[in-house]
Amino acid sequence: MPSPMSADHHPLVRKLESIFTLSHDERQALANLPMQLASIKADQDIVREGDSPSRSCLLLSGFACTYKITAQGKRQIVSFNLSGDVPDLQSLHLKVLDNSISTISACSVGFIAHEDLREICERFPRITAAFWRETLIDGAIFREWVTNVGQREGVSRMAHVLCELILRLRAVGLVEGHTCDLPITQAEFGDALGFTPVHVNRVLQQMRAEGLIVTKGTQLTVPDWERLKEVGEFDPTYLHLENKQAAA
Amino acid sequence: MTLTLQPVRVATGFDEEGILVLDGDQRLVAVLTRLDGEYGDVSGHWYLEVGFGRLSGRDQHTFVDLDAAKDWMRQRLA
What we know:
The complex is a heterodimer.
Chain A lengths: L10 H7 L6 H8 L4 E5 L4 E3 L7 E7 L2 E6 L5 E7 L18 E4 L3 E7 H10 L1 H27 L2 H18 L3 E2 L2 E3 L4 H8 L3 H13 L4 E3 L2 E3 L3 H7 L12 H4 L1
Antiparallel strand pairs in A: 1-7, 2-6, 3-7, 4-5, 4-6, 8-9, 9-11, 10-11
Helix pairs in contact in A: 3-4, 5-8, 6-7
Chain B lengths: L3 E7 L5 E7 L5 E7 L11 E6 L10 E2 L2 H12 L1
Antiparallel strand pairs in B: 1-2, 2-3, 3-4, 4-5
C-alpha cells in the first residue's frame, strides 16, 4: 500500500534530512515507499532477538527502545528510538537480529519490506549512502552511550541522555521551544542508564531542585540548555546533525 | 545468622534515615535507607543502598519493611 504522507511530513524523510541532503526525487521515492501500517500499544516488542525479519520497521510516531536481556533476565536499553528512526534497518544486511526492539509509548509504525528497501537503494545510490550514514551515526550513539554509562555519574549521566533526546527530537520537529513530550518512565531510564529506579528518582529530584529540568506529567522543559549541556558534558558532534541550528 | 542493625543518617542528597547492617562478626554487610518522600509506590520502603560480598550486585532491592530486608539478607548470607 502506498504511503499516504507527503514528503514534507514523512517521518523518514524528515529524519534522513536531519543528517543528509536529499534531492527532490529522493525525497519523493522515500515518501512513496510502500509501508504496512500498524498501531502498537505501549511496552510491546516489535521485533525480538533471534528474529530473521523480511522487513524493517519505521517508527512513525511514539517512543521505542532497542534492548538486550541478560541470562538473569535483566534488561539493558542500548538506545531510545524516536519518530523517523528505522531501528532494525541493519536487518536488511544482518540476517539475524542480535537485539530486541520494544515500544515505550503507544507507537505508529510502518513496516517496509526488505525487497522495497533493496529496490530503492539500487535506484537511488545516494539513498544507500543516507542509510549508511544513518547506521554509522547509530554506531556513534552506541559509543557515546558506553562512555556515558561507564564513566559519568548520577546527574551528569542523566543530563547527557536528556541532551541527546532533546536534540534528536528537535531534529525531527518534536521540540517546542525548550519543551518536549518524553513518555519514558523512571524504570526505563534505569534500564538505559544502569541505575536502579530509586537512583533515577533521586537524580531527577536533584535535577528539579537545581532547576536543570522542569517536569509536568510526561512533559519535560529545560529552562537553561547551556547549563544542562555543561552538567552532562554534552558535545553534539557524535549526532552528526546537518542542520547546525538544531545542533546548537 | 545474627544481624545487628545500627541506625545512621545517610547523605544520599536527601539526608535519609538509614541502617548499617553488621553480621555476626561485626562486619559491615549492607547499608539500607528508608525511602521517605516522593518515591511513588515504594515510598516508605527500605532500599538496599549498598551491599558487600554476597549482598553486592546491581540488583535493585526494595523491601516493604525491615523484617523483609533481614529475611532476604539472611538468605543470601547463609
